């Protein structure tokens, strides 16, 4: 999966969770400071991403550093993808 696809999926998930249109995100957009997400909205966003792009997230292994920005979240999502052909 390409980075821009993940960023688009993050925008869609955030729009769903925040109940407002979220667009124009850059990899430098901070999730907590700029978008004012809290722990509940982060979990809701992850659930929406799981459904949208077929990843699996283990809440026990979450690290808040992965949610510092759209870029760090994109890196995290790319590591959570199921291997191809499985």
In short:
By secondary structure, the chain is an all-alpha fold.
Q: Roughly how many Å is the radius of gyration? A: 12 Å
- Shape verdict: globular
- Helicity range of the residues? 40-55%
The profile of the biggest β sheet is:
none
The overall pLDDT, averaged over residues, is 90
- The end-to-end span amounts to 15 Å
The secondary-structure class comes to mainly alpha
The arrangement of helices and strands along the chain is: HHH
| Portion in beta strands | under 5%
Continuous helix count: 3
DSSP summary, beta strand count: 0
Low-pLDDT sequence parts: none
Structural overview:
This protein has 86 residues and is an all-alpha fold. α1 packs across α3. The radius of gyration is 12 Å and the shape is globular.
Describe the secondary-structure layout.
Layout: H1 3-18, H2 39-53, H3 70-80
Helix pairs in contact: 1-2, 1-3
Considering the chains and any ligands shown, give keywords for the structure.
86 residues; mainly alpha; 49% helix; 0% strand
């Amino acid at each position: 999966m390409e980075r821009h696809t993940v960023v688009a999926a993050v925008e869609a998930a955030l729009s769903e969770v925040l109940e407002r249109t979220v667009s124009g995100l850059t990899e430098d957009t901070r999730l907590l400071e700029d978008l004012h997400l809290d722990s509940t909205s982060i979990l809701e966003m992850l659930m929406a991403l799981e459904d949208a792009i077929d990843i699996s997230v283990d809440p026990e292994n979450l690290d808040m550093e992965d949610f510092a920005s759209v870029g760090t979240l994109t890196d995290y999502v790319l590591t959570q993808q199921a291997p191809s052909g499985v």
